[in-house]
Amino acid sequence: MSNQKKAAGQDSRERISLLKVLGPAHVWALGVGIVLVGEFMGYNFSIGKGGALGSIIACWFIGLLYTCVAMIDSEVTSTVAAAGGQYSQAKHIIGPLMAFNVGLYLVFAYTMLEAADALVVGDLLVEAAKDFGHAELDPRPFVVFTIAILAWLNYRGVFMTLTVNFIITAIAFISIYVLFIGAKGWAPGEFIQPEGLLTDLPYGWLGVIAAFQFAIWYYLGIEGTCQAAEEVRSVARSLPLGTMTGMMTLLIAATVTWYMTSSLVPWEYLGMSYIPQYDAARALGNPFVTICMFVGTLFSAVASANGTINDAARAWFSMGRDRYLPVWFGAVHPRYRTPYRSILFLVPVAISFAFTGLLDQVITFSILSGLLGYTFMPINMMRFRKLWPLGSIRRGYIHPFHPLPAITLFLLCCITYFATFLGYGTQLLAMMTFYIVASLWFHFHRYKYVKRGDQFQMTWPRPKGY
Amino acid sequence: MDIFDILGYGCWIVAGLLLLWMVVDFFKVNSEYDEEFLLSSREGHDEIAEQEKMYAAERERKARESDSSI
């Protein structure tokens, strides 16, 4: 049996590939699923930095940053039917060193986010246990269980993984509106107190800038939709549709979340809470809404962890397939058609990050890695339009007003770096040092193993000027 | 021991079983299939497009055959 299978693979020269089964709804579930946890926790630290008004200003500016990210990603990825997302884009458009760095940003951003999500699940259950009179609950079994069951789901196939993500993300999204309806969000005065709680800018405009770093939470991870490029049935249609509808969903969810929580809980408290939506529901005093917010927070964290496992494994797999990492990671499961070695390899990595218990540090490293990835995108876009002008390659989506979105994205990234430096300067410098050392390792050691011709398999036309 | 303690132990056990299942399957697949086959995926390889091309060629062939039989 064993020999037969081995022979069958060799004799027929049969190729194996990831399974093309996904549609726009799965892409939406992947992008929004990763992000939505930010609407249940994390975003509120921006309220702590800049006050309620500062937070909404930062929310919309960062919304503009991510709209640029979504538009640029939609255009480029609609031409790149390859797993790896921005890594594959960088490889084709800029070069190997950029691609290696972008691949690392992706893996670190997603794996750390996965660890943070699992920590949130554990912390949430600790809170629930306290409400039922059980103090000192150990969160570790719940953290490990969350990572293990989601890794198992990912290992067994992408279709079921993202179908589950669609369902739990939709439930979490609806729960935001349960709070809106429960608190009669359309009728200020009865429960919500916008005029009393929406104070002026307590730390001035510098506070608004400082809020940028945490306003990223409203949208962090929407760019993860690109990782599904090799598994969607129609990359030119599904990727732009899923990504752009995802971005619209998040802009609405972010604004509603900010409005409801800022109107129910004083900003001084909200800015420090670890479970702001749940706290807002508790402030409302409606048990049904409180249970819904508990379920919403739990499901959003699970959906995010699920999506990040999917994305980190695809990025790691793509780098392995191109020999940027050991080629062993580039294997596809013959039955489930998933990057099974990468999925399994990243499980202990995520558990290790989660066991540190340092939620804020893990989140900061995730945000910084994401931010580095966004900074590469404007450069990538400029070069893409230069080397493959409109008409030279089939695009599923063409983003408008080029180069305005790329310039806007670059400027907003610079402001967000400054904001991050204000709060987490040491971590920012440590992260930069790590990526510089990794780049040197790649340049002087790893790149000699890369088969230069093998890494470019796309049927793209020759770039302009070459 | 209350419900949360029982849930905690249950989570350890189920997580252990799931991880064990994946590790066993991982070794099974590695030993049963040829390494070259497992590593044979290529970016941009679009099996749906290839199938569509194949079906289109098949339809064309059948159309030609029916034309010639008339």
Task: Describe the protein.
Chain A is mostly helical and 466 residues long. Chain A has a single domain, classed as Amino acid/polyamine transporter I. Helices cover 69% and strands 0% of the residues of chain A. Chain A has 16 helices and no strands. Chain A has helices at 2-11, 24-35, 45-77, 86-93, 96-131, 140-156, 158-182, 194-197, 204-215, 235-264, 267-270, 276-284, 287-321, 340-355, 359-387, 404-444. In chain A, helix 5 (96-131) packs across helix 16. The radius of gyration of chain A is 22 Å and the shape is globular. The termini of chain A are far apart. The model of chain A has no long low-confidence stretch (mean pLDDT 91). With 70 residues, chain B is an all-alpha fold. Chain B has one domain (3-69). Chain B contains three helices and no strands. Chain B has helices spanning 3-32, 35-38, 47-69. The mean pLDDT of chain B is 87. The chains are: A mainly alpha (466), B mainly alpha (70). The A-B interface holds A 1-2, 5-7, 9-10, 14-18, 20, 80-84, 88, 125, 129, 132, 134, 137-138, 141-142, 144-145, 147-149, 151-152, 155, 230, 233, 318, 321, 327-328, 330-335, 340-341, 344, 347, 457-459 and B 2, 4, 7-9, 11-12, 14-16, 18-19, 21-23, 25-26, 29, 31-48.
